[in-house]
């Protein structure tokens, strides 16, 4: 869904990674958890932190900082896991996304959102739905369905199957 298709006020969950503010459509967010112990799964990329037990279900957890090429951070009292639903070939996949801190749920009007920046042809910015503006601060609005490639999500499903 590109910015042109954002025609109504939408609620977003905002969160921090390093000094940047990001947002997810609240409709994709199931819940926010305090950071808990994560079981590392061998032979997975660094950004795949492992799996957690969420009320009896195996949920893979991805470190968004590492996924976006940022440095790994020490976990703090604010570190959390945002449980999201991602669409994979018409199927819903539940995942955890590690963030430095959750900020707030906010409404953004269509006129507060601009198209994602064009950064040349080499960089893939399809996962950026738009750039929100709130109190003179930019908010990078993510399209969580496009943050991960089909191959990465297939690996997530394999992780769930192997850990179950």
TrEMBL record:
InterPro entries per UniProt: CheW, CheW-like_dom_sf, CheW-lke_dom
PROSITE patterns from the UniProt entry: CHEW
CDD domains in the cross-refs: CheW
Cross-referenced Gene3D superfamilies: CheA-289, Domain 4 (2.40.50.180), SH3 Domains (2.30.30.40)
Domain (CheW-like) ranges: 9-153
Domain of life: Bacteria
A Pfam family recorded for this sequence: CheW
Name this protein carries in UniProt: Chemotaxis protein CheW
Species the sequence originates in: Geomonas propionica
